[in-house]
Amino acid sequence: MAVDQSVMCMVVVAVASTAVLFAGGAGAALSTRYYDSKCPNVQSIVRAGMAQAVAAEPRMGASILRMFFHDCFVNGCDASILLDDTANFTGEKSAGPNANSVRGYEVIDAIKTQVEASCNATVSCADILALAARDAVNLLGGPTWTVQLGRRDALTASQSAANSNRPGPGSSLATLVAMFGNKGLSPRDMTALSGAHTLGQARCVTFRGRIYSDGNIDAAFAALRQQACPQSGGDAALAPIDVQTPDAFDNAYYANLVKKQGLFHSDQELFNNGSQDALVRKYAGNAGMFAADFAKAMVRMGALLPAAGTPTEVRLNCRKVN
């Protein structure tokens, strides 16, 4: 399917006000101008770091975007996913959805080092991750948007929360709608955000059930994926989530769903005679609509903050508390 990349790149979501108060976020106000005086170069530093990372390995764009999703869905966008385990807690890195799966921690570390050199003890790891996710999408041909800033970093992390707060690749449509709804995200937000699967690779263990057991799958596509993913063994073998353009942020993901070529069971649930079918068709045929909705949904997801009263800080090292 031909995709107008110029349409994807030109979509910019502007936020009307410079400061927005988000409920449930410890009373924190996120602002588009939060670092204008305190660290005016932060966005260019993050962009340069992501440009270098994506140039070295395009897949890293998908990895950083995924890291942001997995962070925000567990107690808000607070960089808790970046914390290493300590004697006091077992963190999120070793949780089921993240272990041997979430990657790119060293990219955030490198960017944090550059930011600290420019503006010591000023920019949170959570804000760096939010900016890096935006730049990852844009550098791979997707839209850009105005990132609200002013997040702070968690002092702890929870493996149990990371295991329970994120929908898995075998989720039903009802589960997807409910779990995104629990975060204040609409079914339309959920369907747009699922378009992140236009990027990246997945391990055989996450889609084996889909390609061997699901009935609503294109036979040729199933056979193609079975070549690299046997019914037993080979759990770590990788396959692109988007069979058409795995390193480009475009709307091909939705065209794949219409053709029953979604890699995950949860992907195909978006187009399986259910409530999201019509929207999937719209996104498949309108790159600009998808890009605009994705950008807006990323702003909304990025506004998920820790509960009021949660202790936070600006970490100097993203892997550990100060």
UniProtKB/TrEMBL annotation:
The record marks 66 as: Transition state stabilizer. GO terms for cellular component: extracellular region. GO terms for biological process: hydrogen peroxide catabolic process; response to oxidative stress. Heme b binds at residue 197. One of its GO terms (molecular function) is heme binding. Disulfide bonds join 39-119, 72-77, 125-318, 204-229. Residues 29-322 form the Plant heme peroxidase family profile domain. The active site is at 70 (proton acceptor). PROSITE patterns: PEROXIDASE_1, PEROXIDASE_2, PEROXIDASE_4. Pfam families: peroxidase. It comes from the Eukaryota. Keywords: Calcium, Disulfide bond, Glycoprotein, Heme, Hydrogen peroxide, Iron, Metal-binding, Oxidoreductase, Peroxidase, Pyrrolidone carboxylic acid, Secreted. It catalyses: 2 a phenolic donor + H2O2 = 2 a phenolic radical donor + 2 H2O. Ca(2+) 1 binds at residues 71, 74, 76, 78, 80, 92. Gene3D superfamilies: 1.10.520.10, Peroxidase, domain 2. Its cofactor is heme b; Ca(2+). InterPro entries: Haem_peroxidase, Haem_peroxidase_sf, Peroxidase_pln, Peroxidases_AS, Peroxidases_heam-ligand_BS, Secretory_peroxidase. Substrate binds at residue 167. Binds 1 heme b (iron(II)-protoporphyrin IX) group per subunit. Binds 2 calcium ions per subunit. Belongs to the peroxidase family. Classical plant (class III) peroxidase subfamily. Belongs to the peroxidase family. Ascorbate peroxidase subfamily. Removal of H(2)O(2), oxidation of toxic reductants, biosynthesis and degradation of lignin, suberization, auxin catabolism, response to environmental stresses such as wounding, pathogen attack and oxidative stress. This is Peroxidase. It comes from Oryza brachyantha. The lineage of its organism: Eukaryota, Viridiplantae, Streptophyta, Embryophyta, Tracheophyta.
